[in-house]
Amino acid sequence: MCGHGRYVPIDLTRPHILHDGVLDKDGYGRVAGNRSAHQRAFEEEVRDLLPGETLDHVCKNRACIAIWHLEPVSQSENSKRRWER
After folding, report:
1. pTM
2. I want to staple 69 with a disulfide (CB 3.0 to 4.6 A). Which of 49, 59, 75, 81 is the partner?
3. Residue 23 and residue 51: Cα distance in Å, rounded?
4. Given this model, what pLDDT does residue 3 score?
5. Cα–Cα dist 66/18, whole Å
6. C-alpha–C-alpha distance, residues 5 and 24, integer Å
7. Whole-number Å distance between alpha carbons of 69 and 67
8. What's the pLDDT tens digit per position in 27-81?
9. Are the CB atoms for 63 and 27 separated by under 8 Å?
10. Rounded CA gap, 28 and 66, in Å?
11. By the 8 A CB rule, do 19 and 65 touch?
12. 53: which strand partners?
Protein backbone atom coordinates (compact mmCIF):
# COMPACT_ATOMS: atom_id res chain seq x y z
CA MET A 1 0.00 0.00 0.00
CA CYS A 2 3.00 2.25 0.17
CA GLY A 3 2.41 5.69 -1.30
CA HIS A 4 4.96 7.88 -2.93
CA GLY A 5 7.27 8.40 0.04
CA ARG A 6 6.82 12.14 -0.20
CA TYR A 7 6.88 14.71 2.57
CA VAL A 8 3.55 16.39 3.24
CA PRO A 9 3.75 19.35 5.62
CA ILE A 10 1.00 19.89 8.17
CA ASP A 11 -1.20 22.71 6.90
CA LEU A 12 -4.27 23.56 8.95
CA THR A 13 -5.17 26.41 6.57
CA ARG A 14 -6.21 23.76 4.02
CA PRO A 15 -9.69 22.26 4.41
CA HIS A 16 -10.72 18.99 5.97
CA ILE A 17 -11.58 16.07 3.74
CA LEU A 18 -14.20 14.16 5.69
CA HIS A 19 -14.71 10.44 5.19
CA ASP A 20 -18.17 10.03 3.72
CA GLY A 21 -18.59 6.36 4.56
CA VAL A 22 -19.03 4.44 7.78
CA LEU A 23 -17.89 6.06 11.04
CA ASP A 24 -17.18 3.97 14.13
CA LYS A 25 -18.54 4.78 17.60
CA ASP A 26 -15.55 7.11 18.23
CA GLY A 27 -16.03 9.07 14.99
CA TYR A 28 -13.20 7.52 12.94
CA GLY A 29 -13.88 6.62 9.31
CA ARG A 30 -13.78 2.92 8.46
CA VAL A 31 -13.17 1.22 5.12
CA ALA A 32 -13.16 -2.39 3.90
CA GLY A 33 -11.97 -4.86 6.48
CA ASN A 34 -12.68 -2.43 9.34
CA ARG A 35 -9.52 -0.50 8.49
CA SER A 36 -9.17 3.16 9.47
CA ALA A 37 -9.91 5.48 6.56
CA HIS A 38 -7.28 8.05 7.58
CA GLN A 39 -4.53 5.41 7.76
CA ARG A 40 -5.48 4.06 4.36
CA ALA A 41 -5.43 7.55 2.83
CA PHE A 42 -2.05 8.33 4.38
CA GLU A 43 -0.50 5.04 3.27
CA GLU A 44 -1.86 5.37 -0.28
CA GLU A 45 -0.72 8.97 -0.71
CA VAL A 46 2.40 9.30 1.44
CA ARG A 47 4.00 6.15 2.88
CA ASP A 48 3.43 3.12 5.05
CA LEU A 49 3.52 3.72 8.78
CA LEU A 50 6.63 2.46 10.53
CA PRO A 51 6.35 -0.07 13.36
CA GLY A 52 5.17 1.77 16.47
CA GLU A 53 3.78 4.75 14.53
CA THR A 54 0.21 5.95 14.57
CA LEU A 55 -1.43 8.98 12.98
CA ASP A 56 -2.33 12.09 14.94
CA HIS A 57 -5.28 14.10 13.64
CA VAL A 58 -3.62 17.48 14.14
CA CYS A 59 -6.92 19.07 13.07
CA LYS A 60 -8.70 17.23 15.94
CA ASN A 61 -11.41 15.93 13.56
CA ARG A 62 -11.45 12.13 13.70
CA ALA A 63 -13.42 11.80 10.46
CA CYS A 64 -10.81 13.82 8.53
CA ILE A 65 -8.70 11.94 5.98
CA ALA A 66 -6.77 14.96 4.62
CA ILE A 67 -3.11 13.93 4.53
CA TRP A 68 -2.04 17.49 5.39
CA HIS A 69 -3.90 17.13 8.72
CA LEU A 70 -2.27 13.80 9.65
CA GLU A 71 1.09 13.48 11.37
CA PRO A 72 2.82 10.16 12.03
CA VAL A 73 3.89 9.98 15.69
CA SER A 74 4.55 7.34 18.32
CA GLN A 75 1.61 6.00 20.29
CA SER A 76 2.96 7.66 23.44
CA GLU A 77 3.23 11.04 21.68
CA ASN A 78 -0.30 10.65 20.33
CA SER A 79 -1.61 9.90 23.83
CA LYS A 80 0.29 12.85 25.28
CA ARG A 81 -1.17 15.21 22.67
CA ARG A 82 -4.67 13.90 23.34
CA TRP A 83 -4.36 14.84 27.01
CA GLU A 84 -2.93 18.28 26.15
CA ARG A 85 -5.95 19.22 24.01
Report:
1. 0.88
2. 59
3. 25
4. 62
5. 8
6. 29
7. 5
8. 999 998 789 999 999 999 999 999 999 999 999 999 999 999 999 999 999 999 8
9. yes
10. 13
11. yes
12. 74
